Amino acid sequence: MKKVNIAIDGFSACGKSTTAKAMARELGYLYVDSGAMYRAVTLYFLDHNITLTNPREVQKALDNIKITFHVNPKTGETETFLNVLRVEEEIRTMRVTEHVSQVSALSPVRKAMVSQQQKFGKKKGVVMDGRDIGTVVFPDAALKIFMIADMNIRVERRQKELFEKNQLVDFEEVKANLARRDAIDSTREDSPLKQADDALIIDTTYLTLDEQIEEGLNLATSRILEQN
Ligand code: DC
């Protein structure tokens, strides 16, 4: 069966990564979390005090960054590495989350990440989630999904996720962060978050996790059959 690339875009905390991960596992495809790559760059920039307004400093930092994904043999989960360091938990802390939209709005950062993401998709068989996957990274993806959900539901889900990682964050703080990131991600000049013309919407507001995965897999299966 010929493999295809699947692009999943949408706002933060709509269920993109959980759905993408499960779809990839079920289809035997590679899952790539593009947000993790922008988060890893942000972590590096914070740890090295990179001045975002200094293009030379930004480029030098980007030249020193290598982001890779490795499957943890114990959990079967894909984990993010920044150079040789495993940063899977650190990139999801509020410290990084607070700055990631500013960092990912920078064109040199996007250029470097998009080029790496396109390499992952060369052989097809990738499920990638993010903000510009269907519009910029894989404009010819066989299936593009755009996920949406009600804001309060998104806040509750993100808060629960953080709580499970022992991070207690106030509802209003999570909501403010999501709203701020929505605004920056969808209004930035370079590759703003928007639904691709040929993307199909999944609204996860009233869906359980299993239902949203099933909906994604149904779309994927029929698209894969069409392509074969
Ligand atoms: O999916 P996430 O919340 O982990 O993504 C973190 C940030 O990275 C998000 O606020 C915007 C940015 N991002 C992006 O600009 N382009 C992508 N393809 C993925 C993420």
Please provide a brief summary of the model.
Helices cover 51% and strands 16% of the residues.
Verbal overview:
The chain is α/β, with parallel strands linked by helices. It has a single domain (5-223), classed as P-loop containing nucleotide triphosphate hydrolases (Rossmann fold, 3-Layer(aba) Sandwich), CATH 3.40.50.300. The protein has helices at 16-27, 34-47, 55-63, 94-104, 107-121, 133-137, 151-164, 171-187, 209-227, and strands spanning 5-10, 30-33, 67-71, 78-82, 85-86, 126-130, 143-148, 200-203. The strands form two sheets. It has a five-stranded parallel sheet, sandwiched between helices. The protein has a three-stranded antiparallel sheet with strand order 3-4-5, with helices on one face. Helix 1 packs across helix 9, helix 2 packs across helix 4 and helix 4 (94-104) packs parallel to helix 8 (171-187). The longest helix has 19 residues, at 209-227. It is globular. The protein starts with a strand and ends with a helix. Bound molecules: 2'-deoxycytidine-5'-monophosphate.
